[in-house]
Design goal:
2 domains, 340 residues, Arc Repressor Mutant, subunit A, mainly alpha, 15 helices
């Protein structure tokens, strides 16, 4: 029970990051929340609470159909720096909404859904297959990017990557056990519980190591949080590093890696970009990519390469992302802009 409460608390903290613009942690929080509810439900069954008089039916929140889309969104944000949430992404959660609606309807009609094989396939097997596909996609991208190779051990970026590895290894193991237990029965479900407990405790430990200091309560200028850093010199280092290293040409270059390259705290680099450039990190990096594209488009390269080819060389990962960012930056499409 303690591990489930820990997992739920961690998930709520993660989901609260949506108010700071961190959508990746929000979607990961959804996944962790469902895991916490799963362990709490298991405790309720074993302790007899589920069958007690007037229990709080918290297990009605459990919906496996949330796993695939929420995990996919988290993986996309973690592996593609150009990824942006679009309106059609809401449709990915439509099966989960249908699941909740059917649960509510069946409860009002006193119908036991577990008597219907179609419901079991929809609510259990479909999300299992979807989650496996997302995990497979992640490992394919991860081994291609191999982010740990260029990160120094002991710094915050390394700890963040270790946390990501802990999560995905745990989920992979859980999915494998999920498949096996569907064939041999669920008498060994405690192995899944142990894996989830290990993951929650690992999350808590790595979060502590990554953020060992408490935020400042000093009112006024936000830079009071970083009294030991020189903003002017740090900004010069930031711009010089991007100019010389051109990391923005990589399709996936998260803020954590930039902070590691600068040997500065991630929160401080984010502060510099937000406070002095009035942009979030993605807007800041994409501006460099747009300038790189425009520079290439003014040379002879445009005669031998397509606009998409120049965009990909400038760090964009897809045509749709490039077109959207370019129009936000210039107010015109790439072809319209270059005609003038």
């Amino acid at each position: 029970m303690i591990s489930s409460i820990l997992g739920i608390l961690i998930s709520l903290i993660m989901m609260s990051q949506i108010f700071r613009g961190n959508k990746a942690d929000f979607f990961l929080g959804l996944v962790v929340f469902m895991m916490g509810i799963e362990i709490l439900f298991s405790w309720g069954v074993q302790s007899g609470y589920v069958n007690s008089t007037d229990p709080i039916r918290y297990w009605k929140l459990l919906n496996y159909l949330i796993f695939p889309p929420a995990l996919w969104m988290f993986v996309k944000y973690s592996t593609d720096d150009n990824f942006q949430f679009q309106s059609w992404h809401y449709l990915l959660f439509f099966p989960a909404i249908i699941g909740y609606a059917i649960e509510i309807w069946s409860g009002s009609m006193s119908i036991s859904l577990m008597e219907y094989n179609l419901w079991i396939w929809y609510s259990d097997y479909l999300p299992m297959v979807g989650t496996l596909l997302v995990i497979g996609y992640f490992w394919k991208k991860y081994f291609k990017l191999n982010p740990l190779r260029s990160i120094k051990k002991g710094n915050k970026t390394f700890l963040s990557q270790l946390r990501l590895l802990l999560l995905m290894l745990s989920l992979t193991l859980i999915c494998i056990m999920w498949i096996i237990f569907n064939f041999i029965g669920w008498k060994y479900f405690n192995f899944i519980e142990f894996t989830l407990t290990f993951m929650f405790l690992g999350f808590a430990l790595l979060n502590f190591l990554e953020n060992q200091s408490f935020p400042s309560l000093t009112p006024g200028n936000k830079n009071h949080n970083f009294p030991n850093y020189n903003d002017k010199k740090s900004l010069e280092l930031l711009e010089l590093t991007l100019k010389e290293q051109q990391h923005y040409l990589k399709p996936n270059f998260p803020l954590k890696e930039l902070a590691s390259e600068l040997n500065l705290p991630q929160r401080y680099v984010s502060f510099l970009i937000n406070h002095y450039h009035d942009k979030n990190y993605k807007e800041f990096i994409n501006e460099y990519r747009i300038k790189s594209f425009l520079s290439k488009a003014q040379t002879s390269e445009k005669d031998s390469k397509t606009l998409l080819g120049l965009a990909l060389e400038s760090g964009f990962s897809s045509k749709s992302t490039f077109n959207q960012v370019f129009k936000n930056y210039t107010g015109k499409s790439p072809s319209e802009y270059l005609k003038n």
